[in-house]
Amino acid sequence: MALIDEVVSKIADWKGMNVSIHPLSGGLTNTNFKVEVNGVFYFVRVPGESTELLAIDRKNEYHNTKAASEAGVAPKVLYHLPEYNVMVIEFLNGKTMSKDSLNEQGMPTRMAQAIKKLHQGPRFFSDFNMFRLTEYYLSLCKERGIRVPDGYLERMPTVAQIERAMNVNPLSTVPCNNDLLAENYIDDGKQLWLIDYEYSGNNDPTFELGNTCQEMQFNDEKISEVCAAYFGKSTPDMIARMKLNMIMSDVGWGLWAAIQASISTIDFDFWGWAIERWGRAEEKMDSAEFAVWLKNVQN
What we know:
Helices cover 47% and strands 15% of the residues. The chain has 11 helices and 10 strands. The strands form 3 sheets. It has a 5-stranded antiparallel β-sheet with strand order 1-2-3-5-4, sandwiched between helices. A 3-stranded antiparallel β-sheet has the order 6-8-9.
């Protein structure tokens, strides 16, 4: 019996009902399913192989998904099967977003509004820090002999420099998703929903903003729009924090992709993605603006 069939059979409320299971495409870590039960749709996510190596804490994810639902930005958790690390979630009738759709006029403001709603909600179970996660991922690569992009280790002093600069005037942490790829936004026509809380945790809000701007490849105008919609105005210090966190997004998630290239069974060019992300990070670290961002976050 496939794991999804086993999971479905464990939900007492569904016994004797007409159940059909439909695989969904798109997950980079897990396998996703749309399950129809007597005409009602549910979302079920089955974790991928070795996801614990990627620093995913399923207890943290469950707690935070419920908290995000309370904040009004995530769908409800309807069933939880901890023995399988599976949640059955309310199925959202909406459009899964893409980079192109989120680059349309007005979307950066809508994204910032949804993010702010999450950040104003209940605190999350644990904290998230991309500097510490990067250290963990590096130790895992060393331990398992996983290939990392060329020049990665040589740039770690620059990463430490970014952390020191950002710690001069730290922001209070808020509950963050920390992984707002385009596909983790769903538009139902009224609001943007934020899904997938595998990497969620209390964090600097400008990591969330910078990370999602980097995922969308926003230009400076759209980055400024996100900043203004979130903070009320776009200021050099907050833009600098977002820009430095855009670098950290690529530093950390690029290493995540290198690990996935080694352990994942999903058919995706993770190594190509690692190289692309690392190239963007290096380009920003070598830019003339880098020193300006370091200075502005300390003002």
